[in-house]
Amino acid sequence: IVAGDLAETVVLDDPTSGLVDDDSRQWFEAWAVGKLFAKTAGESASAAREQAEKRKRWLSLRNFLVGVGRVARANREEDLRTRRRILYEAIPFLESAENAGFPPGRMAQGYRILGESLFHVGRYDEAIDAMTIAVDQDPSLRRDLLPLLAESQLKALAPLTDASLETIETYLSDRALAPEQRWEGQLIQLKAMIALGMWDRVNETIQRELRAQTELDFQQQAVQGAYHDQLRLLQSVAEVTRAIRRYGRYGELVDNGPQDRAARVAELSRSIERMSRLQREAGPRLASQARLWSARAYLVQGRSDDALNELSAVSRQRPFGAEAIAGGL
After folding, report:
1. 3-state secondary structure string across 281-329
2. pLDDT, mean over the chain
């Protein structure tokens, strides 16, 4: 943070303040070379170009330090909105440093910080590229970045679901993972399998994880309890998603009367019961997610009033949360 603050005080004599795009960079290089020619009459053109390259390296270092400093400040923020705002401010500096070439020896670090920042502001497609380069440059970053990379592949504008599953399975093959790390990876793997419609494997994995006996300390036991709640929610998510693909979002694909509706009600009754329990016992955010998926299940069953009640409850519980916005939509 201190280095970034100091770097921001450095004023380099150029018209772009260190943040340049492709077109203005060409103009700046021409400007710099021309200015150096004027100042160094009699010097060779190669010396002038060398001086311009040196200035470019200083600009890259300055922007790198400013960007890294702002990211460090963002990571200390507890307020999510403030954190995201600072990350938005940091990214242009990091992108400028990337375009000019990260400082020597800092390429893997630069792409890692850029990729993580892009991930946390929801720019998943760009995050994929940056984190892939970081891992290629420094394989020791795999344990830190592969979960973020897999999740970005799932959330990309055109989801890379197969690649996501492959990425997270590579991560889970690391036998030295701590329990919390493995649980994080397992949840991402389940989301990828749900997206791919691997219903039997999803169910087998969840049942195995719920039955697993692991020696844990007190703090890890609390984390494991939250992990089990997430597993139960994903079990219901898988069941509701499968029903939506089979019957349609509103049960419109297969609706031949009361008998079909009764089948949909029976198929999703355990899912709704499980999610009702999560609404009472899980943390606020997971409870809101359970309500959203309960509403989706009710819509498949043709129970619009019950779905509306669940969506209204989400809006009351967390009026400014992402779940409330999704419920309103």
Report:
1. HCCHHHHHHHHHHHHHHHHHHCCHHHHHHHHHHHHHHCCCCHHHHHHHC
2. 84
For residue 42, pLDDT over 80 is answered with no
DSSP 102: P
For the chain, the C-alpha Rg in angstroms (whole number) is 26
Alpha helices (H) along the chain: 2-9, 22-39, 45-75, 80-100, 107-120, 124-137, 142-155, 161-172, 179-195, 199-211, 218-247, 258-281, 284-301, 304-317, 322-328
Tell me the C-alpha to C-alpha distance, in Å, between residue 297 and each of 104, 190, 329: 54, 19, 16
pTM of the model: 0.79
Other CB atoms within 10 A of residue 306 CB: 16
pLDDT digits (tens, 9 = 90+) for 292-319: 999 999 999 989 999 999 988 887 766 5
Is-contact 56 29, C-beta < 8 A? yes
Report the percent of the chain where pLDDT is more than 70. 78
Mean pLDDT in residue range 151-163: 95
- The residue with tokens 């087998």 is 204
For residue 291, the one-letter residue type is R
Return d(Cα 287, Cα 319) in angstroms, integer: 14
How far apart are the C-alpha atoms of 150 and 139, rounded to whole Å?
A: 16
Give residue 8's pLDDT. 54
Q: What angle do CA 189, 193, 199 make, to 5 degrees?
A: 135
